[in-house]
Write a structure and sequence with these properties.
By secondary structure, this protein is α+β, with helices and mostly antiparallel strands. The protein has seven helices and five strands.
Length: 179
């Protein structure tokens, strides 16, 4: 049995000492917020905190985490500034990488409370296949400021179903008008 401390709870797990922490969290402890992405520590979907440091849990044998403070996305408080900023900035698209992104951002902001864009680009190495990096950067800046109020809407209103939609044809465009 290996004793680990996850989200402030002591857990005894009966696994091989070289079992990746990711699989202990997901399969033994049913903490499925931490995601499997690449299995080689590159994508960051499996990011958790060990003693307040962001680490790729797919690369950490559970024996190395024994006796250390492990925090998963489930253990990060719901009112954490990063979680609030993620919601306010509407960061997720598919959402798969977001737990790892949030954990990486929380550890990053603990070290760099007022980051510049270059700091964010250097430290936020998690991969987002949907390309939400601009929203991630905005959310990190928002969390750093402690402002979690919703961002202003940026979508235009849809055209009215009853109003005709003007169209431009090559002929009317040449005359400078709309049809």
């Amino acid at each position: 049995m290996i004793s680990i401390i996850v989200n402030n709870k002591v857990c005894e797990v009966d696994v091989a000492p070289d079992t990746p922490l990711l699989w202990v969290l997901r399969d033994q402890l049913q903490l499925t917020g931490t995601k499997y992405g690449c299995g080689i520590g590159e994508c960051g979907a499996c990011t958790v905190h060990i003693d307040d440091e962001a680490v790729r849990s797919c690369q950490v044998p559970v024996q190395e985490a024994a006796g250390k403070k492990i925090t998963t996305i489930e253990g990060l408080p719901e009112n954490h500034p990063v979680k609030a900023a993620w919601v306010a900035e509407e960061v997720p698209q598919c959402g798969y990488c977001q737990p790892g992104q949030i954990m990486q951002a929380a550890a990053f902001l603990a070290k760099f409370p007022a980051p510049a864009d270059g700091d964010i680009d250097k430290e936020m190495t998690n991969i987002c296949r949907c390309g939400t990096y601009p929203r991630i950067r905005s959310a990190i800046h928002r969390a750093a400021k402690g402002a979690a109020t919703p961002a202003p809407a940026t979508t235009a209103a849809a055209p009215s179903a009853t109003a005709p939609t003007p169209t431009t044809t090559p002929a009317t465009a040449a005359k400078g008008g709309k049809q």
